[in-house]
Amino acid sequence: MHTTVAIVGGGPAGLLLSRLLHRAGVDSVVLERRDRAYVEGRQRAGVLEQSTVDALREAGAAERLDRQGLAHDGVELRWAGRSHRVDFPSLTGGRRVWVYAQTEVVKDLIALQTAAGAAPYFDAEVRAIEHIDTDRPTVRYLHQGQEKVLTCGYVVGCDGHHGVARTALPRGVRRTHERVHPYSWFGVMADVPPSCDELVYAHSPRGFALLSMRSPEVSRLYFQVPNGTDPADWSDERIWDELDARSALDGRTLTRGPITSRSVLPLRSSVTEPMRHGRLFLAGDAAHIVPPTGAKGLNLAVSDVVVLARALTHRQRTGDTALLDAYSDTCLRRVWRTEHFSSFMTTTLHTGPGQSEFDTRLQISQLDRIAASPHAAAELALNYVGLPLP
Ligand code: FAD
Ligand code: DHB
Prior knowledge:
FAD/NAD(P)-binding domain, globular, FAD-bd, FAD, RIFMO-like, FAD/NAD-bd_sf, flavoprotein
């Protein structure tokens, strides 16, 4: 089999890239190692930036998002018995975010591409990416137990942090910069209407908590735990008690309901450079990971593939490779800005093991500053709703 663009991985990055290329008349094949039900059911991110929503609209993939997505014009910060709402439109020239789950973005993209006759190949595990220094790279994969080869003009690694594409960058070229944070997130889904209309990010002496949602009927809740925490050690009651102890304000507690899923996610920051070598490009989590506190992982994956789709389309239409040549530098500027914001949100709101009172006072001073200064609040708001795409 031959295609113009071989896409390794059918998460949000790979699926949106194939959708954007399809709309531009550039053919591609998505190879995804898991089955469709698994990919559509994987619980992950929930907040879409303005520019992510714009990109999905541009891809003709926002019909359900525009009906069912929840537009949010602010978030609430809580700390030291105080609270402050950061208003997005007034601080950002009218920008906002949407709560719409990654699972739904993935379902919408798969349905559209399938209807267009360009369905991803599921159960197709890529084993090797070769000849990226030539104009005819090859991708070896196992499909339903059979070894197959896909030849192509370009390969894009959208295969997440544990994929194979990153390791296909030659050792002498690849640099990975990493920070492992000393805490994880305990995340739960609960069948109960959210207790607050907007997301709440809470700093507390017991550690960080985040109140989010998936729909008017379903709450999504997170709280900081030590690395290595086993979710099975926590009863439902203990989870709700902990969330209340960290987020309650003026004695108002959360409405409780059945917890339907739970998991623990370690927090990690990582960037691999360059994001391109020869005919191989990296996009999304394959190139970078951010801790989730800034709600950026999915959004950063989307901005990479918007830049890449534009560059590949330009190459096909004009023969000019200038945008492809600039891809890595163009993306990395936004990647590092987003790494900084995600680290800022994480270190401002979490409590490190053995954290000193001095460090806690610095965090509280920073949160007080955001409440007191529209300039400090605007810096948070502009990053949270997402900087304009490159
Ligand atoms: P992925 O979604 O990881 O997709 C990669 C795809 O490649 C997968 O479908 C995988 O099966 C496939 N693949 C891997 N190897 C191969 C191979 N060899 N051959 C073929 N296919 C392969 N972000 C937030 O903002 N908020 C959150 O709450 C949040 N929670 C998260 C929880 C978890 C457990 C994880 C891992 C991430 C979370 N993120 C969160 C980050 C966000 O979900 C990611 O940034 C986003 O999924 C990135 O999309 P992607 O397409 O680049 O990668
Ligand atoms: C959600 C996840 C995040 O990482 C975040 O910062 C806000 C919301 C969510 O899953 O709803």
